[in-house]
Each structure stands twice: as C-alpha cells, then as structure tokens.
Amino acid sequence: MILHSISLPALDGYPLRARLYEPEGGVRAQVLVAGATGVPQGFYRRFAQYAAERGFAVMTFDYRGIGESAPASLRGFHLDYLDWSRLDLAAAVQAHDHPEAPLYLVGHSFGGHAFGVLPNYDRVAAFYTFATGAGWAGWMPPLERLRVRLMWNVLGPLMTAWKGYLNWSLLGMGEDLPLNVYRQWRAWGRYPRYFFDDPQRGEEMARLFERVQTPMIAANATDDAWAPPASRDAFMQGYSRAPWLGVDIHPEEGQIGHMGYFRAGAEPLWDEVLTWFESQRPPDRRRLHRAPRSLSPIVRS
User: Fold this and answer.
1) Which of 64, 267, 298, 68 lies closest to 180, judged by CA?
2) How many helices (H) and strands (E) does the chain have?
3) What is d(CA 114, CA 209) in angstroms, rounded to the nearest whole number?
4) Which of 18, 98, 134, 292 is 20 to 30 A off residue 257, Cα-Cα?
5) Facing residues of 17 across strands?
C-alpha cells in the first residue's frame, strides 16, 4: 500500500488536505470517504488501508475548518455548513478520478447528508453510508436526547459566546466546529426530518436530493444513539428518486454506537461495503472530465 499526501484546492480555492491510499498493484476501483461532522480524516485510515489491500484507491480528506484543513483559529472563520459538500467534497470527487476505474463514495453521518447536495454526484457510481440520520433528538433514546438538548441549549450557547466557535474538543466529542456549523446543525436538529423541514431551505434541499438516482445503502447500528434506524429512515426519504436500501446492524459483541463503524474490529462491515461496490455496474467513464491532482508520497508500507 502506498500513502500520499495531497494538496486539494476546494472549488472556491480554499486549501484542503487529503490522503490517497493506493494499492500496490492495479486499481480495481476508487473510493472516496465523506466523513462525519468534526471527525478528522485520520479516523478513517484503518478502513482506507483495508480497502487499499483489496485493490481500491481510497481518498480521505478534511473539510475546511477541520483537522489539517483548519485555519490557525476558528474565531471569525465563516462558512455555510453545506460548503463542506458543494465546495470541499465536490473538489475531492473531481480530483479522485482514475481514467479507467469507477468511483464509489462511503459516507459517515454528515457524509450521507453531503451526497444529496453534491453538484457532481453523477460521477459516483454507488454510495454506501453509515450512521446517517435526521439529527432530531426525538429519534434518540431518552438519555441521549437529554444530553443533546443540554448541548444545544446550554453548553453550545455558552461555548460559542466565550470562544466564537464550538469548543467540541473540550467535551471530548470531536474536533472544534466553526460557529456556523454549530448554528445550522442546531437549527436543523429541531426538525424530525432535519433540513427538509426547514421553512427557509426545505424546498431547496428537496429539489437537490430529488436529482439523485444513484444506488445506495444506508446502514445503521441499532445501538447508535445519535442515528438509530428510525432517524435514518426519516432522513433517507429525501432521496426520493434513488434506489436505496436501509440496513439495520445488530451488534453481537461489544458496541458500535455512532463511531464504531470505522474502528478496529469493523472489518466484516467493510467487506460488505467493498463487495457491494464490486457488484455494481460502473458508469461510462469516457463521458466524464478528469482533473489533475497534486501528490507527494509520505510512506510506503
């Protein structure tokens, strides 16, 4: 497996950092990982390495404001939450473009939201997402519902007033988040179907998601307190024209929760993803424009 560090300009020129995990032999297919909110790309390295060993070229990246793509300070750092999709993820789709290999997308939580907003979604042959849900506390178990409402209504306002951003790392919940990400996430989390129920943006989001006809699977663990299967089903209805399948994962040993899909021990889940991708019929790559990418090798292992 060969690991590269990539300089990846977003569609508006914002400098992103990404990593490309390439197999030693020929490239069977390409996989792009669209991560969760506040989760740096290093979290997905085990999955990326595993897929590379099976012949997939895998790209991970950090959204603007997160991980290696963060500025020196988040105070005063402005963005629309959905810029992570239409500017950052879109650039990764454009760059991760082997001339003879189909492109597949793996999402985690927010990654399942991002795909519906993606302007170049039609470059992706199939989509598999874990832990995608509507974000409404009402779908969560009672204790988690209480914690989330405490975060939105008490801790979040105090932290953002103090810091100018959500100091999420102080709570041990992930990377710190830009102010607008917190504000929009909190606002959409008030609705059972997330931004589809937003009076100001709901119609826009419905139109965007209705474009998508990509085959997809949405898998959620039954012990995922943030995105249980009912929350997934409420959100995935937005992909009204896409052939999607909801898969409930019942943990037999240990826990999966909201993050365990990509931790050590999740290899059986990864096998299901990669095998499903291999069964898909790729689109006609001759009709797709390819863009160059800037690579610098880090390590060979």
Assistant:
1) 64
2) 10, 9
3) 10
4) 18
5) 7
Q: H-type helices in 151-228, by residue range?
A: 156-163, 179-188, 202-210
Stated length of the chain: 301
Phi, psi of 61 (to 5 degrees): -160, 165
Write out pLDDT tens, residues 102-134.
999 999 999 999 999 999 999 999 999 999 999
Question: What phi and psi, each to the nearest 5 degrees, are found at residue 177?
Answer: -115, 140
Strand, coil or helix: what is 277?
helix
> Do 247 and 215 contact (CB within 8 A), yes or no?
no
* Alpha helix (H) residue ranges in 16-136: 45-53, 83, 90-95, 110-117
Extract the tokens encoding 53: 């060993």
Q: Are 135 and 185 spatial neighbours (Cβ–Cβ below 8 Å)?
A: yes
pLDDT of residue 295: 30
Query: How are beta strands 56-61 and 15-22 bridged, if at all?
Result: antiparallel
Task: Dig out the tokens for 138 from the structure.
Answer: 């009402």
> Which amino acid belongs to residue 213?
Q
Question: Hey, what are 207's tokens?
Answer: 């139109």
Helix-, strand-, coil-residue percentages of the chain, each rounded to 5: 40, 20, 40
Separation of CA 5 from chain center: 19
Q: What percent of the chain has pLDDT over 90?
A: 83
Q: Is residue 89 a contact partner of residue 107, using CB atoms and an 8 Å limit? A: no
| Beta-carbon-side half-sphere exposure of residue 106 (alpha carbons within 13 Å) | 29
Residues 105, 53: Cα–Cα separation, whole Å: 17
pLDDT in tens, 256-269: 999 999 999 999 99
Q: What CA–CA distances, in Å, run from 226 to 133, 146, 238?
A: 8, 12, 19
Between CA 167 and CA 178 the distance in angstroms is 9
Structure-token pair, residue 210: 């209705």
Rg (alpha carbons) of the chain, rounded to whole number: 18
Check pLDDT > 90 for residue 26.
Answer: no
Q: Give backbone dihedrals phi and psi of 58, rounded to 5 degrees, phi first.
A: -115, 130
